[in-house]
Please model this.
Amino acid sequence: KGRETEEENDEGKSKERKVEGRKLKVIVFGEVKGNFELFYEQLSKYQESKAGPFDVCFCVGSFWNENEDQNLDQIQNLNRSDLSKISSLPVYVLAENEREWNLENVIVKQLSGSGVINIQELSVGYSTVKNLSTNDIDAFEQVKKQYDDFKGLDVLLTLNSFEDPHTFILDEKYSPRYHLYSNSSKFEEKQPFMDSRSNVTRIIEVNSLVPNTNHNSNDAKLNKFVYAFSIAPIVTTTPTNLPLNPLSLQEFIKNYKLNPIQNLDSNPSRTNENDQDSKQLSSKRIGCWFCVKEENVEKDLIFSINKTLYCAIPKGSLHEDHIIIIPVRHTRYFFLNHNNDLQSSFSTCFKNLISYFNSKHLQLPTKNNSNTIRWMTWERNINRKNYHTLTQMIYFQNQSHTALTDSTSFSQFLSKTFPSTEIDFLEFDQNLFLEQQNEIKTLLKTSLFIKIELNIGKVFIGIFKTENSREIGREVACIVENKTESVNWKENGSADLQGEKLCALKWR
Model:
């Protein structure tokens, strides 16, 4: 009972690969909750069985009982003869709060907080934190940076279920080959999934050593409190026994109806009411026009996509050099977002677009005038429920408009076109803006605003004074391109959807 090896996990449906390097035998127990006598009795039995001896033991779920007296009584009553059989076997346990372990010659290593440790070349991540913050996964990031080709973690141990969005982010980012946890209700193997790097993740829920009577079942498999497998460290070999036809990450999320998040705030004490990033970030919003998974999305308008962002031709596009950049996930902000992956992906995408536009328009008569405005990007934060942010970018085709002469002309144009009773504009040099980014973000966190960036190293922040924020970026673009009739394209039907789809096809 409870004996399973990696070869047996997929019931003979595995692809066999030749593996170099020694495999380690790993045994995993569910929640112990202070039942140390029963735990060591079972561990000794398995260590001497045909499945053993094991190289390492993990205990997922709570190792300690909340009652300190019971912990002490159990430790004192342990059968020393049982302990002698497993004295050389290291036992790693998850502990929200570390306790004193007074038994000599019995190796119990308590893991608390979040981090990564190396066990006989196995890369083992762990987390006992209920709500992960950016600081909690710093250790994971440091390990990731040690490898030019990071293949993922060998094992991930957590107190929380993978269904918790703060925990599933570790499965998404670090691709553990095994994610093990225990919530005391049942044993279950989830259907494996494969990420974009062909890393397969198996998620195993192990039952409690002493099952909760409210969830007890006559099904022997559901009551399993131990799980065993053989594994060769990922740093020394190619993983063996990949299951046939694993789910993709997106299929896995859909299959288990997950609501994963990417943005982790560095200050976990900040309340959800003020943390609009985490409150508004999910895999999708039903009815959203920009969530890739939603039926509303015009996928024929998308011309480039990765796991983080996609580029598309907007509905109501002014011309072929007018595009939008949108997060794949439902995200409230670009500029105010703390997610490093999103910011890095956006920066790379943005640089590539600029390079493309500059090479495309080399013959423009203004190319030698560094003060001339050639392109503009804008992002809005507006008061709309379930708003999915996007950044629009346009490379102006009408270079003769006076507003594009220099930053002074553009600033005057903004002041004249948009009254100060509706919006106040702040102008920054790009370098100063980057230096003061944190202060600016703090200022804007509770504001409705538009951020406009120009190729001449100028950034304009417009702070709205009313709830009904105008589509200022689009108005500017329409006026400059002499297409004022397209400002209200939804009302006047000026959009050409078929032409926009052909434009996206050309971009692809």
